[in-house]
Amino acid sequence: MIFKVIAKQELAKLFEALLANRVVGPVRKGSDKNGTPIYSFEVVYDFTQLQLDYTSTQYPAKRFFLPYTETLCTFEIAGDSWEKKVDFNIYQPQVLFGLHACDINALNKLDKVLLESAYPTPYYASKRKNMFIVGIDCEPQPYCFCRSMGTDTALHGFDMFLTDLGKKYFVEIQSAAAYNYLKHMQTSDPTEEDHLRYMAVEEARHEKFMAQVDTTDLTKILDMEFQSEVWKHWGDKCLSCGTCASVCPTCYCYGVAETVDLDLKHAAKMKHLHSCNLIDFAEVAGGHNFRPDSHTRLKYRYYHKHRGFVEAFEESLCVGCGRCGEACLANITVPEVIASVRHEEI
Amino acid sequence: MSAELSYMGVDLTRPRVAFFELSSCEGCQLQLLNKEASLLDFFNLLQVVQFREAMSEKDDTYDVAFVEGSVTRADEEERLKIIRKRAKILIAFGSCACFGGVNQLKNRFADQDWVKREVYGDFAIDTQPVRPLADIVEVDVNIYGCPVKKEEVERIVTDLVVGKTILYPKYPVCMDCKANENICLFDLGEPCLGPVTRAGCDAWCPNNRMGCWGCRGPAEAANVEQLKNIMAEHGFSSETLLDRLECFGGFSAFVDGLRQPQQDTGKQGSGI
Ligand code: SF4
Ligand code: SF4
Ligand code: SF4
Ligand code: SF4
Ligand code: SF4
Which residue of chain A comes nearest to B223, CA vs CA? Predict the structure, then answer.
């Protein structure tokens, strides 16, 4: 790891240099009814559009590497034969400029399934391998519990990571590509004072976490509490709407549908992201549904994230970003659900 | 129209199709004529034998009947039964046909004579409470929406012609709304029936910053009870919720349980 410091205004130069690619970053999309800003990841053309001090975005940057809807292939039909065309839908390298640690860790978790497994997903790999990530430190929000999930710092999975030291950024450089981009900015080596400032900033940040999840023995507790009444309680509230998975940076489930064009000469295979909370999710051919009850679907979302994935990869499939709880109209949040399973006071 | 129709080298027959309207605004039929870019391909799949909005000839031999509108007169009931006898596949076309639609709002009034006087004045027409098609005949396919979404009609018709199973989303509008990364209407201080309404419209209204009114009827795991709590928590009255739930008739089964006993407003629980 190489460390540098830059004066804040230098960052615009890095942005300009990266603009040859498609740059995606946090922008202000609007405000809610109380005037609170709503941020989202969008394609950015101008450095001044970037809101690097954003709280968090309602949606992750997922649509840029795992789109909600993606054409997997198209068919051109001629007589009784057809020609299949596969397109991985990546035309330009992408820069994710300003990802928080949780979202970088989310990508690292997706990599385990979609990139490093026995059957990598080329549609994801093509985008992931053509990606440059500039991370940035964040201000913990009341709903953030990444610290409980061990995802409040990103150890890898980025090219460059910025920490706001006031007038300067502390810069971690992790890739050769990032190192090459340094020449576009005026950088200096951090002094002992910068180190101390960095540690103070990090410590102040750690003090700010409010939400938490106790993950001690959680896989075992989930096994023990499989029949717990609390699942019914949350299931009764759940709308089976799939919002939690849609806003989750690590949910990757999908359905595939084949569509025939009206002219009967073209067809396509379409992928749509799905959610295990949807009633359609566990339905199989013939109409049988393995999880007809709302509480069993909700339960499996938690079992996949906090039990199954942990057993397979020794880490949870939740980065504690809190988006699902914020977006859930029924106010179902991960800290409350896990606490209730542990019979803890909330 | 090209002479032969085939898919993957297999010859297909164009189904003989007729369009009918009962009590409705004919807006769903109008949707069919709307998307000009694909209009020729759409009608190339079909042999249209009756379509009052687009042609003057009429032929009573057909395989597929698209029936728009709800039933509110005795003669409509008779017509529908005849259509059912003639058609192999009867499609309830649009929310009026599927649930009664906006028309069924009149069922909310206890005093039907008053409704008739208000609507028809001195030229009273003999009408009954509004009913969806399925109350009278067997319906094979529902195409939901007020109006229907042309893209969905195109998909269903294509699947019908090539013999694919017709599938609908069972999940609610929120799923499509989120896929479009909309700001939730509740965050903006507006009510929305998206969490309980069947998807398939690509979140048409929320995409335009308007809350869903539930025109496509209930999603298959609709948790209306919980939506009631959510609406209350966001400061919307139960009347606001009921106005939306009752608008198109799809939620009639849920409404009766939600409506508080009313005093002399002339309203009653939805009749269908
Ligand atoms: S937990 Fe919340 S967001 Fe997720 S499906 Fe249930 S109601 Fe929707
Ligand atoms: S489950 Fe919720 S808190 Fe965890 S990563 Fe997904 S959206 Fe974030
Ligand atoms: S099973 Fe559910 S929780 Fe797990 S990735 Fe899929 S949608 Fe997300
Ligand atoms: S705007 Fe409506 S449809 Fe969209 S997420 Fe919110 S409640 Fe669901
Ligand atoms: S959003 Fe709701 S009211 Fe609007 S078209 Fe879709 S189902 Fe109908």
Answer: A239
- Check whether B253 has a pLDDT greater than 80: yes
- The angle that helices A294-303 and A229-237 make with each other, rounded to 10 degrees, is 110
Q: Which of B148, B166, B164, B187 is closest to B66 using CA atoms?
A: B148
Boundaries of every domain in chain A? 2-341
Q: Which residues line ligand 5 (CB under 6 A)?
A: B 173, 197, 201, 203-206, 212-216
Residue A308: CB within 6 Å of ligand 3? no
Residue of A42, A233, A256, A264 for testing the chain B interface, max B β-carbons within 10 Å: A264
Which residues of chain A make contact with B227, given a CB cutoff of 8 A? 239, 329
pLDDT digit string (tens) for B100-124?
988 888 787 777 777 777 777 777 7
pLDDT per position as a tens digit, A329-343: 999 999 999 999 999
Place of tokens 């893209």: B151
pTM of the model: 0.93
Query: How far is CA A208 from each of CA A85, A140, A144, A151, A221, rounded to the nearest angstrom?
Result: 51, 6, 10, 15, 28
Q: Which fold, B5-162?
A: Rossmann fold (3.40.50)
Question: What ipTM did this prediction achieve?
Answer: 0.95
Under an 8 A CB cutoff, do B178 and A59 touch?
yes
pLDDT at B32: 86
Q: Is the dihedral of CA B169, B193, A237, B250 positive or negative?
A: negative
Q: How many whole angstroms from A24 Cα to the centroid of ligand 2?
A: 21
Each domain of chain B, given as residue ranges in start order, spans 5-162, 173-258
Tens digit of pLDDT for each residue in A189-199?
Answer: 999 999 999 99
Counting as low any pLDDT under 70, the low residues of chain A are 346
What residues form DSSP beta bridges with A274? none
